[in-house]
Amino acid sequence: MAVKTNWAAGHEVNAADLNQNFKECGPFGAWASKSDNTVYQADTDGFVVAYANDKASGGPAIYTDSSNPPTTIRTKSHTPANADGGGMICPVKRGDYWKTVNCSTVFWMPVGTA
Question: What is the DSSP string of 15-32?
């Protein structure tokens, strides 16, 4: 039997649904190292955190969308010639594909569980 909680006048929330939603979009998971220029599919919502290659040509970028491979640049950093690279963060929706280009270090930070 589901427990219902009144959280506002005229609205009820099913506590079992809240628990499931928290599992699906709850706390951050563990950091995971990933490889540059590799396509991944997100098992959960999450964030890609990437550092640019030092002196990378063309600049670093993160692509993500529902295509495999992803074709939409969501964030890009301009790295002038002979300059050290910078960092980027990009959210990714569960089920979408993502990849980085011209990045020396890439991490995946999941949100919730698969």
Answer: HHHHHHHHHHH-SB---E
Whether residue 109 contacts residue 50, with contact meaning beta carbons closer than 8 Å, is answered with no
Domain assignment present for 10: no
We report the CATH number of the domain holding residue 85 as 2.60.120
Query: How many Å apart are CA 32 and CA 16, to the nearest integer?
Result: 30
Q: Summarize pLDDT for 70-101 with one digit per residue, the tens.
A: 999 999 877 666 566 678 999 999 999 999 99
- Spatial distance between the Cα atoms of 62 and 91, rounded to a whole number of angstroms: 10
Give a yes or no: residue 19 inside a domain: no
Residue with tokens 């609205």: 11
Tell me the whole-structure pTM to 2 decimals: 0.72
Is 11 within a domain? no
DSSP strand pairing (4-8 vs 40-41): unpaired
Position 8 in a domain:
no
